[in-house]
Design a protein that fits this description.
With 468 residues, this protein is an alpha+beta fold. The chain has 5 domains: 61 residues, OB fold (Dihydrolipoamide Acetyltransferase, E2P), CATH 2.40.50; 81 residues, Beta Barrel (OB fold (Dihydrolipoamide Acetyltransferase, E2P)), CATH 2.40.50.140; 77 residues, Nucleic acid-binding proteins (OB fold (Dihydrolipoamide Acetyltransferase, E2P)), CATH 2.40.50; 83 residues, Nucleic acid-binding proteins (OB fold (Dihydrolipoamide Acetyltransferase, E2P), Beta Barrel); 78 residues, Beta Barrel (OB fold (Dihydrolipoamide Acetyltransferase, E2P)). It contains 9 helices and 25 strands. The strands form 5 sheets. It has a 5-stranded mixed beta barrel. The protein has a 5-stranded antiparallel β-sheet with strand order 8-7-6-9-10. A 5-stranded mixed beta barrel has the order 11-12-13-15-14.
Length: 468
């Protein structure tokens, strides 16, 4: 028989973890021998975080269980197994958080600012901003659904366990984008769907799941101001991949790269000397721009408007007018085409060189007077210059003292400089030549009269005959 003095009874305190033996069972309570003055009670709810409906079939008399003392007063002792499961759950969740491992979370209810979900029986908070890649207006719509998530905060002691569904979605989307991006090669032609307009800058597109950017400068060879007038949202367009952004898995594309440049077509279509038709697109201080074909304008410089120096391009054409012009110069590198209206006609200087010669006397019309110079039109669009010394031998203070604009006068072509396109006129020379001609005629007449009055000299006549 055991000596009573050898018996030692436990001194129990709240929080103690002990081994106990089942001595009796009821449906909802198990009584355990804890070596105390009385047995400890283990309720069904304290047995597990997800308790069974009855202890029958779960425990049997004589089973040993590990429990934690949760209540000690007088001769009453209560114990629990829940904390062991709870700690095991927290340890498992801590491992998920530490390794940034994905897990399933089932949303159980919506609260202010987010939702509560369960992970292995533990409540975890998911902020509204972390529920999806897009904003969810009605949080109750996700109750009952299960998502993949990762922890973004994990401090059980502070009761802060926060998860993100969005982060998992973003990682998955990035992985999918990368996979799709790696299938695209620089320079290939792809089909793209228009998703968004960025006013004045360009168009956002999707090539499969890869985001693309179509700059406004790459929409067309012609200047584009409003992309929304060219495309529609959802429209599928054919483009060429021009850049690959390996950091963001995005591409830059071009629509105009697949269309032959209007300037390339123009270089094949037009050549110097061609007479073509176009429409005046706009006027500038230095001339008029004429659209020869879509995307290609040529310039009529004001100097090429008319051979009449008193006329400008503004006197001859206006915006919207249909005109005929001559191509006089093409600069392929600068993408410039020079046009002329006046060269549709024969150059007046060519006519002048054919019709005028030095010493010729012509009738001209004074059109401009300066202090010592007068400009006289001798042929259409051809002016000669008359200096004061060539107008009169008298001193001249103002040419207007002798001439008036619009007056017709006879002038002599004193000099023609082909290279400088300059004709020098003279009035004085006409008088001098007339005087010289009159004097020469007078001398000739006097000599003839003298010869007629001299008697015949037979000897001289005979001598003259011998010389012949």
């Amino acid at each position: 028989m055991e000596n009573f003095l050898d018996f030692e009874m436990n001194v129990l305190q709240t929080g103690d973890v002990i081994e106990a033996t089942v001595v009796a069972l009821e449906d909802t309570v198990a009584y355990l021998d804890v070596n105390f003055v009385t047995e400890a009670a283990l309720s069904l709810n304290d047995y597990s975080l997800t308790p069974p409906t009855s202890f029958q079939g779960v425990l049997a008399v004589g089973d040993t269980v590990q429990v934690k003392v949760v209540y000690v007063k007088d001769e009453e002792v209560r114990v629990s197994r829940r904390d062991f499961e709870r700690q095991a759950q927290l340890d498992a969740l801590a491992t998920l958080a530490e390794n940034n491992t994905e897990f399933d979370i089932t949303i159980t209810r919506a609260i202010k600012g987010g939702v509560i979900g369960t992970v292995n029986g533990t409540d975890v908070f998911v902020p509204a901003s972390q529920l999806s890649l897009e904003r969810i207006e009605d949080l109750t719509s996700v109750v009952g659904k299960t998502f993949k998530a990762v922890f973004i905060e994990f401090e059980p002691a502070k009761k802060k366990m926060v998860a993100s569904v969005r982060k998992v979605m973003a990682i998955a989307r990035t992985a999918a984008k990368k996979a799709a991006f790696e299938l695209i090669t620089l320079g290939e032609t792809v089909e793209a769907t228009v998703t968004e307009f960025v006013s004045g800058k360009g168009v956002r597109v999707l090539v499969g799941s890869v985001e693309g950017w179509l700059p406004i400068s790459e929409v067309a060879h012609t200047r584009t101001m409003h992309v929304e007038k060219v495309f529609t949202i959802g429209q599928v367009i054919t483009v060429k991949v021009t850049e690959l952004d390996t950091k963001r898995f995005q591409i830059t594309v071009s629509a105009k790269a697949l269309v032959e440049s209007p300037w390339t077509v123009a270089m094949k279509t037009f050549k110097v000397g061609d007479v073509v038709e176009g429409t005046v697109a706009r006027m500038a201080d230095f001339g008029a721009f004429v659209t020869l074909m879509e995307g290609v304008d040529g310039l009529i410089h004001t100097s090429e408007a008319s051979y009449d120096k008193r006329q400008t391009v503004f006197d001859l054409v206006e915006a919207g007018q249909h005109v005929q012009v001559k191509v006089i110069r093409i600069d392929e590198k600068k993408k410039q085409i020079a046009l002329s209206i006046k060269q549709l006609e024969q150059d007046p200087w060519e006519v002048a060189l054919e019709k005028l010669t030095r010493g010729q006397i012509v009738t001209g019309k004074v059109h401009t007077l300066q202090e010592k110079i007068a400009f006289v039109t001798v042929l259409p669009y051809v002016d000669g210059i008359l200096f004061d010394r060539e107008l009169t031998e008298k001193p001249v203070n103002q040419m207007s003292d002798y001439l008036s604009e619009g007056q017709e006068i006879e002038v002599m072509i004193k000099d023609i400089n082909k290279d400088r396109k300059r004709i020098v006129l003279s009035v004085v020379q006409i008088a001098l030549d007339a005087e010289k001609a009159a004097f020469d005629a007078y001398k000739a007449q006097a000599a003839a009269e003298q010869q007629a009055a001299t008697p015949a000299n037979p000897f001289a006549e005979a001598l003259a005959g011998l010389k012949k």
